[in-house]
Amino acid sequence: MVLSLVRRIIVDGWPDRRCQLNPQIRDYWSVRDSLVIDDGVILKGNAAVIPKLLRVWYIDKLHDGHQGRVKMELRAKDAVYWPGMRNDIESKVNACQPCQFTRPANDCMELTPDHQHPVPQGP
Fold first, then answer.
1. Dihedral (CA of 23, 29, 30, 35) sign
2. pLDDT in tens for each of the 123 residues of the chain?
3. Are 76 and 60 spatial neighbours (Cβ–Cβ below 8 Å)?
4. How far apart are CA 51 and CA 64, in angstroms?
5. Domain boundaries, the chain
6. What is the dihedral of CA 87, 92, 94, 95, to 10 degrees?
7. CA 15, CA 43: separation in Å to the nearest integer?
8. Is there a smaller number of Cβ atoms within 10 Å at the N or the C end of the chain?
9. Distance from C-alpha of 61 to C-alpha of 106, rounded to nearest angstrom
């Protein structure tokens, strides 16, 4: 349904203002200039725009191998697109126990006088 509206607006033309759009497709406003239709498929550049029902499946496929958020985004960048994809990828990685277990830990130490270099008296 949403992609049908997007397809129609691509063919008919975008309005002058975002507020004139149907609220369901306002998320596509920021990428409107890069959306095209090729053989019935909506593309953003070379990436296919994925309908809501298939996004979980694509997230699972991108997550095969537990490569983490950055690698998932790189894999997705040229193949698929949907509004909020980065947030969905981040949520998937944050909810994955093996990814959290193998994630590098930054040991943030609090800066206390014991951990600071002495301040010189002069230049």
1. positive
2. 899 999 999 999 999 999 999 999 999 999 999 999 999 999 999 999 999 999 999 999 988 888 888 889 998 988 999 999 999 999 998 898 887 777 766 555 565 666 667 778 888
3. no
4. 20
5. 1-49, 51-102
6. 140
7. 19
8. C
9. 28
